[in-house]
Design goal:
It is a single chain. Helices cover 38% and strands 17% of the residues. It is of the alpha/beta class and 294 residues long. The strands form 4 sheets. Strands 3-4-5-6-8-10-11-14 form an 8-stranded parallel β-barrel.
């Protein structure tokens, strides 16, 4: 975790540390080269196919190649993102069990490849009552953290509130955190597109200050470990999850500039999950955020 202005030997300045989600196609040994080509200061990965339940054991040599190369790369922190199918909020016992096992597996894998955090969407209610939904999520997180006794921190990602999604208000995220026993092992990933789509207005100075004040009041900035830095293709409060290129969506260039340079967010890692048809799309977004942060 961040300790003052130093993170695992990396000096952390006042500016955000920019990075992207990097493909693991062909093995973990290719990750740092890909990250370097995109000038990443921080990275996010999947440890396996994110659209299925099956997984193979990690290739020890591949994992070691990534982990051993991180110190000299200057890249950090490293984040693992949970597979898409996992849903600890699910009322189905079978789905809950699979989701719990999936979370435990990611928590085990993280240190093997040099990741310090695992990012997880809070989940979908799927017709369940709010009371029972939050109880299930807390039970799952507590169970996983108890089962996997290491220093990996689980980050709850804010959501857009699409369909039966929970975690779209800061109060809901705080409600989950309040029920976690090992509070030092849980934090928050603030997705700027999701939050905007859920009703937090980053596009104006007044809206941005109100939203950040709300985050500080409900959750506390000591819990904020990662920003998913995305513009939104859908309007404020749409509850429709659609990421878009930096400055070209409804948050807009001025809103993104205010976010990137806000003192309450200084020094945080910021992973862009903007649309990508080629590496040039990522580089174009990187040029924009660097220009906005000057």
């Amino acid at each position: 975790m961040f300790l003052g202005t130093i993170y695992l030997g990396i000096k952390v300045g006042k500016k955000l540390r920019f990075g992207f989600h990097i493909s693991i196609s062909g093995g973990f040994s290719k990750v740092l080269k890909r990250a370097g080509a995109k000038q990443c200061q921080t990275i996010q990965l999947f440890s396996r196919n994110p659209r299925g339940w099956k997984y193979r054991s990690l290739d020890g040599e591949e994992a070691e190649a990534l982990r051993a190369g991180l110190p000299d790369s200057g890249i950090g922190p490293v984040f693992l993102h949970m597979p898409y199918l996992a849903n600890l909020a699910a009322p189905s016992r079978g789905l809950f069990k699979k989701s719990l096992e999936s979370l435990e597996e990611e928590l085990r894998r993280a240190p093997l490849i040099g990741a310090q955090y695992v990012v997880m969407h809070v989940g979908h209610r799927l017709g369940s009552t709010e009371k029972h939904t939050f109880k299930r999520v807390a039970s799952g997180v507590n169970g996983a953290l108890s089962e996997v006794d290491n220093h990996v921190c689980l980050l709850l990602e804010t959501t857009a509130g699409m369909g039966s999604e929970i975690g779209h208000t800061f109060a809901q995220v705080a409600r989950v955190i309040d029920s976690i026993e090992q509070k030092d092992r849980v934090g928050v990933c603030l997705d700027t597109a999701h939050a905007f789509e859920a009703g937090y207005d980053w596009s104006s100075k007044e809206g941005l200050e109100e939203a950040l004040d709300g985050f500080g009041r409900e959750i506390g900035f000591q819990k904020l470990k990662l920003i998913h830095l995305n513009d939104s293709k859908t309007p404020l409060g749409s509850r429709v999850d659609r990421h878009w290129h930096i400055g070209k969506g409804f948050i807009g260039m001025d809103g993104m500039r205010m976010l990137i340079n806000h003192p309450k967010l200084s020094g945080l890692p910021a992973i862009m999950e903007t649309p990508r048809t080629s590496d040039e799309d990522d580089l174009a977004n990187l040029r924009v955020v660097k220009r906005l942060s000057e």
